Amino acid sequence: MPLEGDEAAEARYQQLLAAGMGEDALEGLVAALYDVSWRVRKLAAELLARVDATPALVDRLIHVLGDRGQTGARNAAAMALAQLGPPAVPSLLTLLQHPDPDQRKFAADILGELRQPDAVGELIGRLEDPDPNVCVAAAEALGRIGGVAAGRALERLLDSKEPLLRLCALEGLGQLSRPPPLPSLLPHLEAPETARSAWRLLGQIAHPTAFALLCRGLLTPARDAALAGLGAREVGLAADGEGELKVTLRHVEQAEGWLTQALASEERALRHGALQAVQAAALSSLAVGVAGAAEGGELAEAALKVLIRLGLPGANALLAGDPPALTSLGREARSVAGEAVLRAAEPVLVPALAALAAAGDFELAELAARALGRSRSEAAVAPLAEMLDDDLLAASAARALVTLAVTVPAQCTQALLQSLERRPRPHALRAYAQVAPPAEALAMLRRCAHEADERVRAAAAEASATLGVELLSTALADESALVRRAAARALARLAPADALPLLRRALADDEPAVLTSAAVAAGELGAKEVTATLEALLASSGAVALAALQSLFQLGVLSIGLLQSAARHADAEVVKAALTFAAGSAEGVKLAVERLQHPRWDVRVAAARTLAVSGGRETLIPLHAALERETDALTRELMMVSAARLAER
């Protein structure tokens, strides 16, 4: 059959989707297994796997397996059978006895995908099949399924005359993390066909002799496999093991070049083994490769551990060059390298960190700022002061100067003051208020409270909370809602007695953002005196009502009547919060039952979760009724989790 264009295949794909999985669609789904388009065949297999696995369906799919000359259809049928689960096992076990070895191999492959322990006995019998391909498929299937009997059978295969079967046995035992006795494994370390798998399996044996053999293997032509065996070890290196590995690596020719290649390997075990070798030999020159081994995320923690052990020399290697070496790394590798640089931040790194900040990469410049802040060096002040003039980096530089001020307070304070005198900026102002003497800080805040830029006035209001109420009172009357909101947010840092008059003013503001901040501050202050005002705010728009509801709960004054009102609020977030706060009461169960019919899916899920926490088995009745009404698949799935928890009571 000639291949058709993408448009024709897409039309058949959509037609198959529209047909669904009903009884009437079965014939079309089976026919679609023969489609010329891989996407259509794959979809047909997936849809068939969701149909009830009746004996008739299983037989139809097994019949397709026997259709020689239709490779695509056979593979698609195998995919469907592998997803049907236990109902397919009896017919597949029967297929293992088929006269056609091709069919027996298909059966073994699918049983391996199903991972059904019931198939182990029959698969062990196929290890002596007259067809070698069937033997290999059975061995591979046993490696996937596992269990004591499967492991013993694979161990017996180690004595097979067939190299491919010995290899399958080693691979299967490796998958099962079931290494054979060391004497049984030793002969396979030398055979070219099995050496690679045997060395990796050797790494799973937690014994000093096995470790010594792995170290010795690094000096042989099988050194890559031995290194991967080291990477297969789940336990870290003890001090004596690290010493032994270090001594071995001294005798490895061109060790650094070899380990550099291993660190870039796509094989996890090889990269992991290389990380252990670099750590043992303290090869700080390979720090960039170590960080690169973290790409993909699997070995991020292991790579970070090695970089930390490499310490300052490793950090120097990461920062060396123009541009700095770590600029060439991927995102995850950069993250690991950055953390290592932060932990190694020392005065000697300041020039390299300044160069990193100027490399033109925003994320790395932020990293450099943080590291400069930790460097405890006066020399770090100048590059951080320069970053204050960059709007993108000003926040990071200001925070770093606050950190650095613990070591060199006068210099950091002066740098921030000079920046503010050139041009007042919010981040520099907040930092200055933290590090400058109180009198000088207050003078600057007063000056900046009259700046034209509302962001600067807001920063002045926010920073003034630790210095008194004078500026906050002025800020609450500011024409800018941004400034008033900052002042309201800062009220929570005042003493309750000082804050209360200003809090009442903020709670009378017309701007929702200011009211929201003020309501949050009321809860943090424990200001029960404004309870009536907060109760009135429950009728406001979503954000204001939510903040008021949270504060009333925080104050311990949230009545059942208020919860009932909140549970009927127009904003779904307020309703969900009300259900959460009501979870500890009998009334909360009633509210949750009512909200099971809410038009928003997330509210219905929240109601079901409240019932799972607080309801009794009797609430299963309304919850099951809600599940019958539910049309959204994801919502139904989430609600069923709650129903399952209730059913256990």
Protein described:
The protein has 649 residues and is mainly alpha-helical. It has a domain at 582-649: Leucine-rich Repeat Variant (Alpha Horseshoe). 69% of the residues lie in helices and 0% in strands. It is built from 41 helices and no strands. Helix 3 (38-49) packs parallel to helix 5 and helix 15 packs across helix 18 (268-281).
Question: In terms of topology, how is this protein built?
Answer:
Elements lengths: L5 H14 L6 H7 L5 H12 L5 H11 L5 H14 L4 H7 L5 H14 L5 H6 L6 H14 L2 H10 L5 H13 L6 H9 L4 H8 L5 H10 L5 H10 L6 H11 L5 H9 L4 H14 L5 H6 L7 H20 L11 H13 L6 H8 L4 H13 L6 H7 L6 H11 L4 H14 L3 H10 L2 H11 L5 H10 L6 H6 L5 H10 L5 H11 L5 H14 L5 H7 L4 H14 L4 H8 L4 H10 L4 H10 L5 H14 L5 H10 L3 H15 L2
